[in-house]
Amino acid sequence: MDDVRIDLITVDEAGELLTVRRAAFVTEAQLYGDPNLPALTQSLTELVADIERPDVVTLGAWSGHRLIGSIRVELEAERATLGRLAVVPDLQGQGIGTQLLMAVLQYLPEQTKEVWVFTGQDSKQNISMYAKHGYEHQYDQHTGDLTYAYLRRILGEGGDEDEEETVAG
């Protein structure tokens, strides 16, 4: 989609963000047979608190006035951890997730050396998208009934600066 605008999510948009995440993560819940995924059980109060955290950046993708996707980035020293990448179900597979993933680079502090992401081990499309953009599988972690795959991308290698110019342009 060419008419997508990516910008920071504000507290005023928290309700809309909660709706987008829940719609997007229903598919994951069905895949894993678990309706209690954190993205589905987070309350509006918890989401607002998360948006207000100084070490968290939450980006949204808009088409006109409609929020159609989002991604959350937690910043810690030289590391950023991506999570909750969500695209509304009717627009999945159209590159919005990739646009959000690439836009994150503009919001990382200069000292960030690596970006981590985790997703369900059985979420093959997600893992494939991350791998396509330079994320390499590092390890799996079992949490309750779920197994998460953790992938990492080292920044400063392979032309990240060119990608940032492309995203900004």
Overview of the molecule:
With 169 residues, the protein is an alpha+beta fold. Helix content is 34%, strand content 34%. The chain has a seven-stranded mixed sheet with strand order 1-2-3-4-5-7-6, sandwiched between helices. A hairpin with a 2-residue loop joins β2 (56-63) and β3 (66-76). Mean pLDDT is 86; it is low at 158-169.
Topology at a glance:
Layout: E1 4-8, H1 14-32, H2 38-41, H3 44-52, E2 56-63, E3 66-76, E4 79-87, H4 96-103, E5 114-120, H5 124-132, E6 136-143, E7 146-154, H6 160-168
Parallel strand pairs: 4-5
Antiparallel strand pairs: 1-2, 2-3, 3-4, 5-7, 6-7
Q: Tell me, rounded to a whole number, the average pLDDT.
A: 86
Oligomer: single chain
Beta-strand percentage range:
25-35%
Specify the overall morphology. globular
Order of helices and strands: EHHHEEEHEHEEH
Strand line-up in the sheet with most strands: 1-2-3-4-5-7-6
What is the structure about, briefly put?
With 169 residues, this protein is an alpha+beta fold. It has helices at 14-32, 38-41, 44-52, 96-103, 124-132, 160-168, and strands spanning 4-8, 56-63, 66-76, 79-87, 114-120, 136-143, 146-154.
